[in-house]
Backbone:
């Protein structure tokens, strides 16, 4: 029984110490989810009967620098509707809440500024979830340069 | 705009959830290393001192970004220091592993036969043997500088709160308090991991410590490689 307990402890300890940092820094399997190349230009996706276009500048999109986010809708939102906002995060990893608040600049265009932080694991696949109040939300998954 | 109390609660809960999701993977090996290095002694005070140091550093960083009003500006200045801290953390883990397995003649290197300088000899000797519980406080202060995505995200909010403060002083206090709340939230997850790695309950621990020492060396090397790539 003692030997079994010992073996079990050793296995768990080994698995944790080697797998914990390994899992996080393992090859970025989320790269397959990328649906947008923000380095070259804007990306467009549909949500309900509206289309959402996301543009991030300056390009290429780099982490740890001030970025400008611009969301363009093909249909203007009804009056008194709150503007869209963007939640930045990484697929499969909780990086904490990082919301970019947007303000209307007219003609169904909304702009705001934010920062994509750097993950020491080396994973570079990020997700921008654009929420359009009263309409829905859409995910843009893209690569970021570290 | 959220009230101050709500913001503190939000940061505390963010630290808590991020702690169980992210910190266990990234910082878990560090607290496990400390637990193993204590070889069955109580981990409570050393771990609390380590977390106190870490939270103090987070709070100081929060105050700095709030005062500067810019996260990216402060982060750019910290980059090289953080890389060095990561190399230090890896080296420390490797040395602790070597010392725990008895493969590092600390006495000969840092003792009478090798004396690179009084304070260096004394400092490293203390750090490696970890005889003094208080050594975990400066360790926490230093390792609080380790590069970490969720800490960066929390600092973004601290910078924003600094800009929204009624006065510069209030903004600075808000940034400091928010980061302290975030750090406090991460403690339960890391303490739980450290407690699970505490082998005090096991009677025959020699094999665990030998295996643990080898793993610590490997983990330390992984840290150093990550630091070089960072």
Residues:
């Amino acid at each position: 029984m003692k030997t079994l307990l010992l073996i079990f402890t050793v296995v768990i300890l080994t698995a944790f110490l080697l797998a914990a940092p390994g899992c996080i820094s393992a090859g970025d399997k989320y790269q397959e989810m990328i649906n947008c190349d923000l380095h070259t230009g804007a990306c467009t996706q549909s949500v309900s009967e509206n289309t959402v276009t996301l543009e991030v500048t300056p390009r290429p999109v780099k982490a740890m620098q001030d970025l400008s986010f611009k969301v363009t809708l093909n249909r203007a939102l009804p009056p008194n509707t709150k503007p869209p906002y963007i939640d930045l995060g990484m697929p499969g990893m909780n990086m904490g809440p990082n919301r970019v608040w947007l303000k209307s600049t007219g003609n169904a265009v909304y702009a705001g500024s934010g920062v994509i932080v750097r993950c020491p694991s080396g994973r570079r696949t990020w997700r921008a979830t654009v929420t359009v109040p009263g309409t829905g939300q859409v995910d843009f998954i893209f690569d970021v340069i570290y | 705009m959220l009230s101050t109390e709500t913001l503190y609660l939000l940061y505390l809960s963010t630290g808590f959830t991020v702690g169980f999701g992210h910190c266990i993977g990234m910082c878990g090996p560090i607290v496990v290393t400390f637990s193993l290095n204590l070889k069955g002694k109580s981990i409570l005070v050393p771990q609390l001192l380590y977390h106190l140091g870490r939270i103090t550093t987070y709070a100081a960083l929060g105050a700095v970004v709030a005062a500067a009003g810019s996260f990216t500006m402060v982060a750019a200045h910290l980059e090289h220091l953080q890389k060095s801290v990561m190399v230090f953390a890896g080296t420390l883990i490797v040395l602790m592993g070597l010392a725990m397995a008895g493969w590092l003649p600390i006495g000969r290197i840092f003792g009478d036969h090798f004396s690179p300088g009084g304070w260096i000899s004394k400092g490293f000797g203390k750090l490696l043997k970890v005889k003094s519980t208080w050594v975990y406080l400066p360790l926490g202060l230093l390792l609080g500088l380790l590069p970490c995505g969720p800490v960066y995200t929390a600092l973004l909010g601290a910078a924003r709160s600094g800009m929204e403060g009624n006065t510069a002083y209030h903004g600075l206090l808000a940034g400091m308090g928010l980061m302290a709340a975030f750090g406090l939230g991460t403690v339960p997850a890391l303490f739980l991991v450290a407690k699970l790695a505490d082998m005090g309950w096991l009677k025959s621990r020699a094999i665990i410590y030998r295996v643990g020492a080898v793993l610590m060396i490997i983990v330390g090397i992984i840290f150093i490689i990550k630091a070089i790539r960072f």
